[in-house]
Recover the amino acids of this structure.
């Protein structure tokens, strides 16, 4: 009786704390918005303490609670066995050969080898899935809910990304966007030269989605920008699919809706820039990793490796993806209590697959290191030239 | 040193306040809408409190890494083009933080079970409204019709209809930004465009083409500087397009011409 009363008392005070947290944070943001509307410098002296107060109150109000939402999957690693890992070897051999002959062999031979290596990994993954589960798909208990949520996300993301006139919003063209567009079009003349670098040292695969969009939707501005629309929409769906396995459907659906409507994400999903490829690559990699860590088959691990190998090539910011995968693995081993040996082996498989997929373009980048490294170096905060620019 | 301190401070606060400084977006708005921004500090703290749970570790490391390599380490002021990689993790963090807080409120006041779902949907709807209002209304009107896109639109409107004599870049002066030819090439590769580069020969259309129909497109300022009538062609239609207004006004004169004597 006393315990129940104490529980109600505590719950009520937690609720007050949560409301106060939201109120303080809202007030802090309101101060910042008010400064913006009035065209004045942001009033950080007032706003920051309010925002921090809200954040601290939120932590206090939710401390010690163990909140679980529907849809969470249990972390467990299914080690496929050494035989299956050995079966991946031919893929590595083919990719190593592609790396060795790139620059000397014709483009179509190198590309064929590169695609074949990736295809072999997928084939082994599919074979493992077939042997382990007989290729029988067991629908999750919340399948209907997930389908409805995905459909809503797909509709919202696509509607906002194609709404209005895609050719007139944004209604200006950045020279970088034109470079990407014309480079994508230029790939038509070299249909097999996908492994290499262009422009300021970016991988040619950066423009692959835009070239595909030009082919499918038309070789004009609308068709070109549809490439970004598709990538942006994919990143929203991938975000939902990865996070729902870890925290459940409801908070993930809310988060994915916020992402689908976020104006910055929206803008880069409507421009023919490569910047939107980083969140898409990150979300797809984490989705496959989350699948693999929650009882996924070898196909999920192989998929994560392929996504990492391809995704790392998308933009400068994506170069951090391999390191982030390793950091995530280290953290998840400690936070989930899974078999660390299996985790280490399978993460090594992911990393080696990604490394071999990256190797051909990596060799070319290494040969012209000055070009590839020039951009990140020149933009570095502590670069003397940048400091002079900043005054 | 003060520059570095300001830079790091602005980067840490970019979800809540600030503007995009590069010309490829130029949003006069914080990185996310005010509704989401309200919850960003809360999400960071709540994820930090859950650092030893898979979601806390994942979101904080990926969000933090993209902030570091995309915003804090590069110079050139705050820009929004390298940071999208952080957005999925930030949004998931915000969604989780709000759902957990709403559960606390629900449990404290004995609200219906569905109140968490409905309040989460309400949050997403409010954020969506704020974003769509900003992007499709405020932002789309903030900069008017740009010279690059606007001029291309006029030229491209003749694709498949008639060749275009384009006099936007003449000797001694480019009326539209350098590289506009590339913009037009990207937007409508099928348009047949003939460059007129000598102002004094603007009206000598017959020297450039013998097409039965042709459109002469030239900045009005140029046309007024060299008054005349097209040689060998008669004017079927003439209008001045005054929509282009960014970064400065650029009235464009358009003459739809037909070969004389046909």
């Amino acid at each position: 009786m006393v315990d129940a009363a104490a529980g109600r008392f505590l719950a009520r005070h937690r609720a007050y704390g949560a409301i106060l947290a939201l109120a303080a944070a809202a007030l802090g943001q309101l101060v910042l918005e008010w400064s913006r509307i009035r065209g004045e410098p942001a009033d950080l002296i007032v706003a920051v303490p309010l925002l921090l107060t809200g954040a601290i109150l939120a932590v206090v109000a939710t401390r010690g609670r163990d909140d679980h939402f529907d849809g969470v999957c249990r972390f467990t690693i299914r080690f496929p066995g050494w035989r299956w890992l050995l079966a991946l070897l031919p893929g590595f051999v083919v990719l190593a050969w592609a790396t060795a002959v790139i620059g000397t062999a014709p483009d179509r031979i190198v590309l064929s080898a590169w695609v074949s290596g990736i295809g072999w990994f997928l084939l082994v993954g599919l074979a493992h899935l077939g042997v382990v589960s007989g290729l029988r798909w067991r629908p999750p208990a919340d399948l209907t809910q997930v389908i409805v949520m995905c459909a809503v996300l797909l509709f919202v993301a696509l509607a906002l990304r194609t709404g209005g006139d895609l050719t007139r919003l944004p209604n200006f063209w950045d020279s970088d966007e034109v470079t990407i567009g014309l480079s994508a079009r230029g790939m038509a003349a070299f249909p097999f030269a996908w492994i290499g670098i262009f422009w300021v040292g970016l991988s040619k695969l950066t423009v692959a989605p835009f070239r595909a969009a030009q082919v499918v939707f038309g070789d004009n501005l609308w068709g070109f920008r549809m490439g970004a629309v598709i990538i942006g929409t994919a990143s929203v769906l991938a975000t939902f699919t990865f996070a729902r396995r870890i925290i459940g459907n409801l908070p993930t659906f809310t988060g994915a809706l916020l992402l689908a409507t976020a104006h910055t994400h929206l803008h880069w999903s409507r421009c023919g820039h490569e910047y939107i490829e980083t969140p898409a690559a990150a979300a797809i990699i984490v989705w496959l990793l989350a699948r693999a860590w929650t009882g996924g088959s070898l196909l999920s691990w192989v998929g994560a490796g392929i996504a990492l190998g391809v995704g790392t090539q998308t933009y400068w910011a994506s170069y951090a993806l391999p390191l982030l995968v390793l950091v995530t693995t280290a953290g998840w081993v400690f936070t989930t209590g899974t078999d660390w040996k299996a985790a280490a082996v399978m993460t090594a498989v992911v990393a080696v697959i990604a490394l071999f997929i990256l190797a051909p373009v990596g060799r070319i980048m290494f040969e012209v290191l000055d070009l590839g490294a020039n951009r990140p170096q020149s933009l570095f905060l502590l670069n003397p030239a940048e400091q002079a620019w900043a005054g | 040193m003060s520059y570095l301190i300001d830079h790091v401070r602005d980067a840490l606060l970019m979800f809540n306040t600030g503007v995009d400084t590069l010309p490829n977006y130029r949003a006069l708005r914080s990185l996310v809408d005010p509704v989401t921004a309200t919850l960003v500090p809360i999400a960071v703290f709540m994820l930090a409190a859950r650092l030893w749970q898979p979601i806390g570790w994942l979101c904080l490391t990926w969000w933090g890494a993209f902030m570091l390599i995309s915003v804090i380490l590069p110079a050139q002021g705050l820009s929004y083009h390298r940071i999208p990689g952080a957005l999925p993790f930030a949004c998931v963090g915000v969604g989780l933080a709000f759902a957990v807080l709403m559960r606390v409120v629900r449990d404290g006041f004995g609200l219906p079970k569905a109140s968490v779902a409905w309040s989460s949907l309400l949050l997403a709807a409010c954020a969506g409204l704020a974003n769509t209002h900003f992007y499709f209304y405020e932002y789309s009107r903030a900069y008017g019709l740009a010279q690059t896109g606007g001029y291309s639109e006029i030229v491209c409107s003749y694709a498949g209809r008639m060749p275009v004599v384009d006099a936007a870049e003449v000797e001694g002066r480019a009326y539209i930004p350098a590289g506009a030819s590339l913009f037009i090439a990207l937007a409508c590769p099928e348009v047949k465009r003939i460059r007129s580069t000598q102002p004094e020969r603007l009206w000598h259309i017959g020297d450039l083409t013998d097409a039965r129909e042709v459109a002469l497109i030239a900045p009005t300022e140029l046309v007024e500087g060299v008054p005349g009538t097209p040689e060998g062609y008669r004017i079927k239609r003439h209008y001045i397009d005054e929509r282009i207004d960014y970064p400065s006004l650029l009235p464009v004169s358009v003459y739809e011409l037909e070969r004389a004597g046909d």
Notes: Chain A has two domains: 2-62, 82-390. Residues 82-390 of chain A form one domain. The CA atoms of residues 282 and 321 of chain A lie 7 Å apart.
